[in-house]
Amino acid sequence: MKYKDIKYFLLSLIVIVLNVNVDAQSDLSTPYSRFGLGDIYTSSPSTMLKGMGGVANAMSDHCLLNPNNPAAYASIDTLSFLFDAGFYIKTATFSTNKLSESGSNASFDYASVGLSATKRWKIGLGIMPYTNREYNVITEHHDLGNYNIAFQGEGGLNRVFFANGIKITDDLSVGVTASFIFGTLFDNTTIYYPDSTYFLNGKRSIEMRVNDFKFDYGVIYRLPINKYDIALGLTYSQGSNISSKRDIFIRNMFKGYNNLAESPIDTLKYIENENVSIKIPQGFGAGIKFDNKKGFVVGADFNWAAWEGFSMNGINDSLQNSWNVAIGCSYKPESTSISKYYKKITYRAGFHFDQTYYNIYGQSINRYGITLGAGIPVPRSLTSFNIALEFGTMGTVKNNLVKESYFNISISMSIYDRWFVKKRYQ
What we know:
It contains three helices and 18 strands.
């Protein structure tokens, strides 16, 4: 094995191991993340595909790592090694009919590797966020005197995955992904009287720790027609019961709000390591890709998940079924060694519309975004830097709800290298 092969391999393992040993960190997230498991990461864990609106179900290429459909790994070259890692920067403004607040942050996005196990069996390993929880909402009440209820939460879940893609025939590939979901979710609910520090306030704190497996499957079938390449992709996410444990702490106190230190008075309830069964619903996706073999690729996806069936210890969280449509394209003018550099850049654009699993006061919370992207190649190699921009909105100000307007910048490095190739001449 060449020295630089070992270097890339160790780099990949270091990135993955470091992230596996760190719990999911809170991110700039929608206040709706209070519900369910938080804000589900539905975008593609690939900056290349993010620039195309997130289309992924039928997308495969020898230079592409596509965790959305494990069958795509079968397209990896037998002697190649792929490494892809990225981060993103998010700026968002949250608005109601009366108020507006802005924020921004940068965060780890994903890291993954792909390589060949045999001629027809290719594997992938990676880590990415699964959900994110970050909210801080205060509601005012005046029915029994003046009191407020503060809802605050943070944390999130990560996903470590092991993907397998097998080429059944030259045109048919199948795949399966085993994912380990882990992380911690924190939720605090505080009832307090802002007009008096002499009234007893109440607080409930819940810490839930999740550790379990889930499985996803995929199929990609190519239909070469004349000079064109058409591919159909299907994905299925298996429903599962994920085990977790939680601690519940309910107490009376003085203060404990507006950054005032708690003065505990009495513990009303304390439960440690209570077993919790979380029912994750099934979902499926379908996609199509058209490639004219002259640098132009266009794809479209549809995804659906039965989140109405979500429950936690048998209790439903008033979620709705979610669905998503995405359309995207890419164009690479030329790729020969004598081409001008700007003609070797891959240009991408796309659009997506999502009905999220949030339904508040009978109002569906929808998200839509427009994306642009580019793949900037490293000279004399198939390695590239990728960037994706997304402009979008989520939610509405109707019924006193919150609307989010956001701008995301995703940046990644995709390393492509050959393994086990001996040079004839030094």
